Amino acid sequence: DTGVSQNPRHKITKRGQNVTFRCDPISEHNRLYWYRQTLGQGPEFLTYFQNEAQLEKSRLLSDRFSAERPKGSFSTLEIQRTEQGDSAMYLCASSLETQYGYTFGSGTRLTVV
Amino acid sequence: SQKIEQNSEALNIQEGKTATLTCNYTNYSPAYLQWYRQDPGRGPVFLLLIRENEKEKRKERLKVTFDTTLKQSLFHITASQPADSATYLCALDGYSGGYQKVTFGTGTKLQVIP
Question: Of A71, A109, B29, B63, whose CA is between 20 and 30 Å from B78?
Answer without folding.
Answer: B29
